[in-house]
Design goal:
mainly alpha; 9 helices; about 80% helix
Length: about 180
């Protein structure tokens, strides 16, 4: 009798997850449903617990939403401009040449994380876009070289470079701007 297989094929995990994915996709509502339900719950709680009128709650909800438009526009611009910069010809060439450097999967994960972290120091939008594009480029180069790697792990490495911006610059800069 042959020994049992210790490393099942990658298709085994996909086959095991397929029914769970189908169940989740069928019965978990979209994010919009959660927003609508939570907004309705907030409105009901505001009317019942604060004594505000329904008209006041609806007006305040609309005023708060429109107050976020400037912030949402800034965030969208940062991401859009980071994407535009990362898709310029010089940056694409640079990413393609950088993607050929790693030779092993571990080198690929660390390399993508470090490059994404460096790009995040310029701006968080550029770091997010460069991390994703570099992960895709490195995956293509590794496939061409015949090196197998875990693509979701590579993408996670690309987006973990974002932590350098968030934890590396935001908190110290914020701390220096507050006076005691």
């Amino acid at each position: 009798m042959p020994p049992p297989k210790l490393n099942p094929s990658p298709h085994f995990a996909a086959a095991c997850m397929r029914p769970i994915n189908t169940l989740v996709e069928r019965y978990i509502p979209s994010a919009l449903v959660f927003v609508i339900v939570l907004s309705a719950m907030d409105a009901i709680l505001a009317v019942t617990l604060t004594g505000a009128s329904t008209v006041d709650v609806i007006r305040d909800w609309g005023d708060g939403l429109s107050g976020l438009l400037a912030f949402m526009t800034q965030m969208a611009l940062i991401l859009m401009l980071g994407h535009a910069l990362a898709n310029t010809r010089p940056v694409k060439r640079l990413l393609a040449s950088l993607a050929s450097i790693p030779a092993t999967p571990v080198q690929a994960y660390v390399f993508v994380c470090v490059i994404a972290a460096l790009a995040s120091l310029i701006t968080w939008g550029l770091g997010l876009v460069v991390g994703g594009l570099l992960a895709r480029e490195v995956a293509g180069q590794m496939r061409y070289k015949g090196v197998r790697l875990h693509f979701p792990m590579l993408v996670a490495a690309g987006y973990s470079g974002y932590v350098v911006w968030h934890m590396g610059t935001t908190i110290p800069l914020s701390a220096t701007t507050f006076s005691t």
